[in-house]
Design a protein that fits this description.
elongated, 3 helices, mainly beta, 4-stranded antiparallel sheet
Length: 464
């Protein structure tokens, strides 16, 4: 990056310093002062077959295939302990020391399952330098500890922990409170959980997520903070961006995309802008809204509790509950009663002659309903409604009775004629009769309900 100056203002020019042609398809990469080097960073690239390729500026140093590597996973470098933390396909997080990786095969570069050609001209065409080409097998190499094609000692992890769910990202930060200067957090973003690990591989804390995450980023809140505390920005697949202060949600906003990679920075003098790379490859600059209010609601003035008044209120409530449970509704004695006289045989054919012709009626039955009231005073204007189902229907469903006398008078008889048609099959023989009237004493509206069944002869006939 070269800075320049023109009449129109300052400008920057990017010049290529060096490049490396990768023999494998790359998956992700990390940079850092591997091995504790000073004032420069090295590069580690993970390929699609799980191989780690290390580069020191212009020079390719060595390749390593981690044990049981099946597919690539998230990769992170912890400068504090000079180790690499990787996520595996078996839902594990493993830690490897850089010194173990570099000394696994001595000082010579090693290719496991190498695709480097044996022809030097073809190797140079691929961008492979003589220093990065595989050396001939040495009989002194210890090949008993590795698979065919490896030389050197077996790679042993520093620690490993099983988290039990797919892992999307691994980052190093200082998001937990009360961390000393020599401690860091290893943040592991799972499909349903956010894990915070110690640099020794132990779980410091974990938080269950309510939605599926897509990316995360620990960022420094204030450069003046002597503790170096960081907040954690987590993006979700429902386009939500949530900021966590330790385990507490400090801010949340909705975006118009699903971020897969994020950075927080200052642009045009505005601090806290979020640069995101979307799942469709677009680069966007997001602003998560205004600063939250730091004002706190003043607590209400407390007053002394009056226990005597509380006991009195409890007693009154219990008394009301007891009275409500003891008051049971009782039916009035002066109520209207309905009973039915159902004949066992159908009406005679000459009685059916009064029915309208062409109605499809194949049978009829006259049921006598008797209405009486258990009171000294009569009731007037009693309305009687009779209903049934299917092809069994009353000829007249509604009746108005002018008056029903009291206890000492004979009951009022209402003949109800039912007809049956052959248009459809009968599904029920039940009949409901409901009488609506006004109470003789207090004048309230009342109803009387009576149910009965018609004989089976209304629905079918016997065959020889």
């Amino acid at each position: 990056l070269i800075e320049g100056d023109q009449n129109q203002g300052n400008f920057f020019a990017l010049n290529k310093a060096y490049e490396h042609r990768l023999p494998r398809n790359a998956y992700n990469m990390v940079v850092g002062p591997f091995g504790g080097v000073y004032d420069k960073d090295h590069i580690c690239v993970q390929s699609m077959d799980g191989c780690l390729s290390f580069f020191e500026q212009e020079r390719h140093t060595f390749d390593r295939v981690l044990p049981d590597a099946l597919i690539p996973g998230p990769l992170c470098y912890v400068a504090h302990t000079d180790c690499f933390v990787v996520g595996t396909a078996s839902f594990e997080v493993k830690c490897y020391k850089y010194v173990i990786l570099s000394q696994a095969a001595g000082a010579a570069p090693v290719f496991v399952h190498s695709t480097a050609p044996s022809d030097p001209a073809a190797a140079l065409a691929l961008g492979l330098t003589p220093a990065s080409m595989p050396l001939p097998e040495s009989p002194e190499a210890d090949t008993a500890m590795g698979p065919p094609g490896t030389r050197g000692k077996k790679i042993q992890e520093e620690w490993a922990i099983t988290l039990g769910e797919p892992l999307w990202d691994i980052r190093v930060g200082r998001c937990s409170r009360q961390l000393v200067s020599s401690q860091v957090d290893i943040l592991v973003l799972g499909s349903h959980t956010l894990f915070t690990l110690r640099d020794t591989g132990k779980i410091r804390k974990q938080k269950r997520l309510e939605r599926e995450p897509s990316a995360m980023l620990p960022y420094t809140v204030s450069e003046q903070d002597p503790t170096g505390h960081q907040n954690l920005l987590v993006a979700f697949h429902d386009q939500m961006l949530v900021v966590y202060d330790d385990q507490t949600i400090a801010w949340a906003a909705t975006a118009d995309c699903v971020p897969v990679s994020m950075r927080v920075g200052t642009f045009c003098g505005i601090a806290g802008l979020v640069a995101v790379l979307t799942e469709k490859g677009a680069l966007k600059l997001l602003y998560m809204g205004t600063d939250p209010s730091l004002g706190k609601v003043a607590p209400l003035e407390g007053k002394e509790l009056d226990y005597a008044e509380m006991d009195e209120e409890t007693r009154r409530l219990r008394q009301r509950i007891k009275e409500a449970m003891s008051n049971q509704h009782t039916e009035p004695r002066d109520q209207l009663m309905i009973r039915a006289q159902i004949p066992a045989q159908l009406d005679n054919p000459h009685q059916q002659g009064d029915l309208p012709t062409g109605s499809g009626v194949v049978a009829s039955l006259t049921v006598k309903l008797y209405l009486s009231i258990a009171a000294e005073q009569p009731v007037a204007n009693v309305r009687l409604v009779v209903s049934s189902e299917g092809p069994l229907q009353p000829v007249q469903p509604c009746y108005t009775i002018p008056q029903v006398e009291g206890t000492h008078a004979p009951p009022v008889m209402v003949p109800v004629v039912f007809t049956a048609t052959a248009a459809q099959m009968s599904t029920s023989l039940a009949v409901t009769a409901v009488a609506f009237y006004t109470g003789p004493t207090q004048g309230e509206s009342r109803t009387a309900r009576f149910e009965f069944r018609l004989p089976l002869a209304m629905a079918c006939t016997t065959i020889a």
